[in-house]
């Protein structure tokens, strides 16, 4: 097992299945242009082989499939078939939910039981202004079906000053009523926001302000979360729980166990580092050749992690998956 001097190791793998997305969210894509798949994305089989080797070489236990938007990728179904037998403790998926209605049967067949659905507003106009694609009603219909099918659903919302702060309480009520755990994600200095500090500061809403806003309407207490969890969790009596991923206000670098693999075969040990390590060539090599080479790359990837604080990174989220 590869462990660093802070005792960190890779346990959770996030794989970006494609860079393509049917949204162009303001905080992810600066120019609003819809994203397309990269030319050199690996096949479903090669990505799955990468996952298999990473399980062995790094001790990966949980896999989250993300993007881009994973549900737009024709490789999702074959990929899920390939990884189903790898013995992972958990396979989950992060999606904007736009195609959830039509893809749900396939996800259920593949054994997916946990979904994170990104939703930044319940106001149709506000939704369009942030996502710059899709429509709210499709997401809501998908969410209802997912709930009826018994999936465990978390909702991701990025609170943005001047755009959706008025949605924090409606979103919380919406989630509490339906048994979805709402996760507020503090805006991260990624991609264009890492280069444009002013725009970041203008939009950023931190943990303290968020909790103050919620406290005006709900009583809550902090509750437990796994040691390597990214979210702080709060319980509102018997109504439910919400979380805040506060990487600016309360950085979680010290216990980070995440490793990321891009659709083009690059490993990223840290969102905050622009270092990356290519494994696209290793996934076609036999195990006895691939594993030692992969282990050397994993040592470097682990060394890329920040010690304490997330400092931002110029890498764009859609390429390495949020
Ligand atoms: N398309 C999928 C979706 O919308 O969930 C998966 C990819 S998206 C990059 C994953 C998550 O990253 C989303 O919840 C999105 O809100 C979040 N995200 C993207 N850029 C971000 C940023 N700069 N700061 C905080 N969260 C961000």
Textual characterization of the structure:
This protein is of the alpha/beta class and 322 residues long. The protein has a single domain (12-320), classed as Aldolase class I (TIM Barrel, Alpha-Beta Barrel), CATH 3.20.20.70. 33% of the residues lie in helices and 17% in strands. It is built from eleven helices and twelve strands. It has helices at 44-58, 76-83, 100-109, 124-131, 136-148, 168-178, 192-195, 197-203, 207-215, 287-303, 317-320; strands spanning 12-16, 62-66, 90-95, 114-118, 152-157, 181-185, 221-223, 231-236, 240-245, 258-261, 266-268, 277-278. The protein has a twelve-stranded mixed sheet with strand order 7-8-9-6-5-4-3-2-1-10-11-12. Strand 1 (12-16), helix 1 and strand 2 (62-66) form a beta-alpha-beta unit. Helix 1 runs parallel beside helix 2 (76-83). The longest helix has 17 residues, at 287-303. The model has no long low-confidence stretch (mean pLDDT 93). The structure holds S-adenosylmethionine (SAM). S-adenosylmethionine is lined by residues 21, 27-28, 66-67, 69, 94-96, 118, 156, 158, 185, 187-188, 190, 193, 317-318, 321-322. S-adenosylmethionine binds at residues 21, 27-28, 66-67, 69, 94-96, 118, 156, 158, 185, 187-188, 190, 193, 317-318, 321-322.
């Amino acid at each position: 097992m590869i462990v660093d001097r802070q005792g960190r190791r890779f346990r959770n793998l996030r794989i970006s299945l494609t860079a393509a997305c049917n949204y162009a969210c303001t905080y992810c894509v600066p120019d609003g242009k819809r994203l397309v798949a990269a030319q050199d994305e690996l096949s479903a089989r090669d990505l799955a082989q990468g996952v298999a080797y990473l399980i062995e070489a790094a001790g990966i236990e949980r896999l989250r499939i993300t993007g881009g938007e994973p549900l737009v990728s024709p490789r999702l179904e074959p990929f899920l078939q390939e990884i189903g037998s790898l013995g992972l403790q958990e396979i989950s998926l992060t999606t904007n939910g736009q195609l959830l209605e039509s893809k749900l049967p396939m996800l259920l067949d593949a054994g997916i039981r946990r979904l994170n659905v990104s939703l930044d507003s319940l106001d149709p106009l506000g939704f369009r202004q942030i996502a710059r694609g899709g429509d709210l009603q499709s997401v809501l219909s998908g969410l209802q079906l997912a709930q009826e099918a018994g999936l465990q659903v978390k909702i991701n919302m990025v609170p943005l000053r001047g755009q959706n702060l008025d949605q924090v309480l409606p979103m919380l009520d919406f989630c509490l009523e339906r048994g979805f755990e709402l996760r507020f994600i503090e805006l991260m200095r990624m991609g264009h926001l890492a280069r444009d500090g002013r725009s970041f500061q203008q939009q950023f809403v931190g943990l303290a302000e968020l909790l103050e806003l919620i406290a005006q309407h709900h009583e809550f207490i902090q509750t437990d979360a796994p040691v390597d969890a990214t979210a702080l969790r709060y319980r509102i009596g018997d109504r439910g729980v919400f979380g805040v991923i506060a990487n600016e206000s309360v950085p979680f670098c010290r216990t980070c166990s995440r490793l990321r693999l891009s659709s083009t075969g690059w490993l990223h040990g840290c969102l905050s580092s622009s270092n990356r390590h290519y494994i696209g060539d290793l996934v076609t090599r036999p195990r006895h050749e691939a594993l030692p080479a992969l282990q050397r790359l994993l040592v470097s990837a682990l060394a890329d992690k920040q010690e304490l604080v997330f400092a931002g990174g110029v890498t764009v989220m859609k390429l390495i998956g949020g």
